[in-house]
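Hey, can you fold this one?
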Amino acid sequence: MKFYNRESELAELGTLYEQANDTARMTVITGRRRVGKTMLALEFARGHRSLYLFVSKKSEPLLCAEYVEEIRNTFEIPVYGEFRHFRDVFALLLDLAKKERFILIIDEFQEFYAINPAVYSEIQHLWDVTKSTCRMNLICIGSVYSLMHRIFEEAKEPLFGRADRILVLRPFSIRNIRTVLRDHGRDDLKSLFDCYALTGGLPKYLEILASNSAFSYDEMLNLMLNENSPFINEGKNLLVEEFGREYGTYFSILELIASGKTARTEIESILEIHAGAYLARLEQDYGIISRRKPVNARPNARLLKYFINDNFLNFWFRFIFRNRSAVETGNYSYLREIIDRDYATWTGLMLERFFHELFAASGNFNVIGSYWEKGNQNEIDLVAVNNMKKLLTVAEIKMNKARINLDALKRKADRLLDSYKGYEATFLALGLEDAADYLEEGGKNSVILL
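Sure. Predicted structure:
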């Protein structure tokens, strides 16, 4: 699949590369696995002198031997002596950067924690001493969110404050997914929505679908549900390393959230544990879940629900992990029956999320969320607010919009409207067919700069 999107990220990397002509620059690219971090860095490095080093799980002397060979091949220079420590390899590269500007990409940067944690202090010392006299454009890539956050953003860590930019890559937007599908002969809203719901816009998953010409609902599920599928064990492969020995508890919590048990009290009642610390880590350390409150809720309000941020992980925990016995026995036809039966219910939430993203991309609102009252009464799917222009949009969202009663929606919004007196309110019934109107409006960047 060709390289899509990331124009703003490439421009930012280009700016830092130009600045590296005067003094060394350090950039961090992070985000969940499969989001395209390595592809972005390599795409940027094309056409420039660059060196790519992958931190694999092997001993430090073996890594150094591999790196020295890469240096010899890239710079076509003799390198003498035995290198057993990364600090010596890094010092050599900094010395080379005094003579010429080049890009150094270090992938899976967080793996040094398992190999030799002292590497980070050694890099910090060498960087501080030589940064002003060399022209290295250093790009550090990392997939394990909690570790990358710790390495570069916790004040007690040696590399805190050293990065000139931290780019947090997000999955492709709905419009980006639409572009991919159009390039592969699909331009219907149903395929777009199903692809969004099942992949969340992750470039690696889209690449797999594209290489298998699988973009319809049936094609995608046929590819996903078989013993050789790259998707069957994907959730486990992504998260076991993040969670460590307690992954079973985290997986149980995520399974419940994906199945609609979104309140802490529900989770604690079913699992018979105190879930507060686990939920906090899932939200704050791992970035896998988010807490949501009604749009008009006070900061200390207790009305909150938890949601899995990633669409694919939501699907994986809801259907694949929850039915792991069928997966382990190879009964994929049973699993497919379960998905076909429950898909319409599950995608109700996905359709709400779909429209939330489209409304956010329009740039017309500064607050977008949902609304509910105690006991999940008077739930409203979408509330969008423009506080500057005093505009309020209230919408109910269903696949079959004919089932929406706007008069009932207005009654449910009575108490909500009390919080927005003087605002001009618009009430909408939205179905998937209405997405076409919002897809034509302006978009929004898919990266966060820190």
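The chain has a mean pLDDT of 92. Let me know if you want another pass with a different chain boundary.
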